[in-house]
UniProtKB/TrEMBL annotation:
The gene is glpQ_1. It comes from the Bacteria. Residues 2-238 form the GP-PDE domain. It comes from Lederbergia ruris. PANTHER family: GLYCEROPHOSPHODIESTER PHOSPHODIESTERASE, CYTOPLASMIC, GLYCEROPHOSPHORYL DIESTER PHOSPHODIESTERASE. InterPro entries: GP_PDE_dom, PLC-like_Pdiesterase_TIM-brl. It holds the Pfam family GDPD. This is Glycerophosphoryl diester phosphodiesterase.
């Protein structure tokens, strides 16, 4: 059965990557939650997608230029809707504490805008261990060097390559770097590849599936999971397939 991952929380109905979006996903009983992590200026892990504050908060400028305390002063809810005024950018720790007593899987996408070593991977792994979330987590990134670093620290963590353009035999490349799953872009994902990859033991999870027709198509393709901004809709549709 295809799993439903709430993409950035229940981000179609709640402000993305906020505690209220994650609580809504928990309330719905999703299989998993996807979120994005970044480092702050003072080396804390926060949950936010963009490298800048501008699109989702009332702040401006780069995440990396602010301390966690400074970031906490920004409103991360009002731009989505005034009813969510007062939501803040969560720390990774806050989300782990929220999910600790659930059985929800977590897909942590590492957003790393620089090439040099920042220590983000070590910090993430420490937090996962502290909250006993390591065996319920999938680590993904478009930055495959970052995944390699995660694997070099703990090869038992499930890492998934994120990529946009399809290419031949992606499972071979994944295996080369020690990744165990493929997170693929919807328009570049076809049934043949999914079947072969999963037959070879590489789960395929597809982003970001928001239309009912696409949900049904990928449920029928039997992908391991879809990422969606509308998990409630997806969960209802899945019951009908
Ligand atoms: O992890 C799946 C998806 O979230 C990757 O793209 O841009 O939404 O972070 P993006
Ligand atoms: Ca993401």
């Amino acid at each position: 059965m295809t799993k439903i991952f709430a993409h950035r929380g229940s981000s179609g109905t709640h402000p993305e990557n906020t505690i209220t979006a994650f609580k809504e996903a928990v309330r719905l009983g999703v299989d998993g939650i996807e979120l994005d992590i970044q480092l702050t200026k003072d080396g804390e892990l926060v949950v936010i997608h963009d490298y800048t504050l501008d699109r989702t908060t009332d702040g401006t400028g780069k995440i990396l230029d602010y301390t966690v305390e400074e970031l906490k002063a920004f409103d991360a809810g009002s731009k989505f809707s005034p009813e969510f005024a007062g939501e803040t950018i969560p720390t990774f720790r806050e989300v782990l504490a929220l999910l600790q007593d659930t059985n929800i899987e977590l897909n942590i996408e590492i957003k790393k805008p620089v090439k040099e070593d920042t220590g983000i991977e070590e910090k993430m792994i420490q937090e996962l261990e502290k909250y006993q979330y390591s065996n319920r987590s999938i680590i993904s990134s478009f930055n495959h060097d970052s995944l390699k670093r995660v694997i070099s620290i703990n090869k038992d963590l499930e890492c998934a390559i994120l990529y946009m353009k399809k290419f031949e035999n992606p499972w071979e490349y994944a295996a080369e770097i020690g990744a165990k799953a493929l997170h693929t872009y919807r328009p570049e994902t076809d049934r043949e590849m999914v079947t072969e990859a999963q037959h070879k033991g590489f789960p395929v999870r597809v982003f970001t599936i928001n239309k009912a027709e696409d949900m049904t198509k990928f449920f029928e393709t039997k992908v391991a999971a879809i990422f969606t901004d509308y998990p409630e809709k997806a969960m209802k549709l899945l019951k009908e397939v």
